[in-house]
Design a protein that fits this description.
One of its GO terms (molecular function) is deSUMOylase activity. With 225 residues, this protein is of the alpha/beta class. Helix content is 41%, strand content 16%. The strands form two sheets. The protein has a five-stranded mixed β-sheet, sandwiched between helices. Helix 3 runs parallel beside helix 6 and helix 4 packs parallel to helix 5.
Length: 225
């Protein structure tokens, strides 16, 4: 793998240091990623919506391969819209899609200055909230469960039984925690990466610099390593 990572390092450095901010470095999932977007993956950078949504697109694309759980990912603007306008306000977001045909639903959430992740596992009827600062999101879990109830009723004419679902905010002893004020977006992406492969979350804050550079390469090549 060494030649690959040497090539990756060269490309990452070029992505950060060469060209103009508006240069387009990748285009997919109805998104255009510029050098300015990519530079949010530099050390101490705050990941923006475009990077988050592009990476979620890569996870969904990978999930179509044999051996992976079927993944659906909502846009980063979904939860704020749902919070302000209820199910009616996001009704069109799933037009032509039955989210209940998937195994895992990813909901990246932006809370003003902080990224978190909510994960619905339809296989075992769980809703889990992942926050790399250890804050609880029980109310967010309840909001999403209510959304699922209404979506199921609207799209499938099937009533969900709320009592069958388990809602849980992951504790600081269950998932790794960030040790600075800017890695939350990377944590969310890697939580989603590991979960969408049914892998235990075993990374640490020390992996973040490597993950940032790896994500640059993956986004440019539209391919997950």
């Amino acid at each position: 793998l060494n030649p690959l990572f040497q090539a990756m390092e060269s490309e990452v450095s070029a992505a950060f240091d060469s060209g103009e901010a508006e240069d387009i470095l990748s285009r997919a999932f109805k998104l255009t990623v510029t050098r300015e977007d990519i530079c949010t993956l530099q050390p101490l950078g705050w990941l923006n919506d475009r990077i988050m949504n592009f990476y979620m697109g890569l996870l969904v694309e990978r999930s179509k391969k044999q051996g992976y759980p079927a993944v659906y990912a909502f846009n980063t603007f979904f939860y704020s819209k749902l919070s302000s306008a209820s199910h009616k306000g996001v009704k069109k977001w799933t037009k032509g899609v039955d989210i209940f045909e998937h195994d895992i639903i990813l909901v990246p959430i932006h809370l003003r200055t902080h990224w978190t992740l909510l994960v619905v596992d339809l296989r075992d009827k769980t809703i889990k909230y992942f926050d790399s600062l250890g804050q609880k999101g029980d109310h967010i879990c309840r909001t999403i469960l209510k959304y699922l109830e209404e979506e199921s009723r609207e799209r499938r004419n099937i009533e969900l039984t709320a009592s069958e679902w388990t809602l849980h905010s992951m504790g600081t002893e269950e998932i790794p925690q960030q040790n600075n004020g800017n890695d939350c977006g990377v944590f969310v992406c890697k939580f989603a990466d590991f979960i969408s492969r049914d892998k235990p979350i075993i990374f640490t804050p020390e992996h973040m610099p490597y993950f940032r550079r790896k994500m640059v390469w993956e986004i440019i090549h539209q391919q997950l390593l």
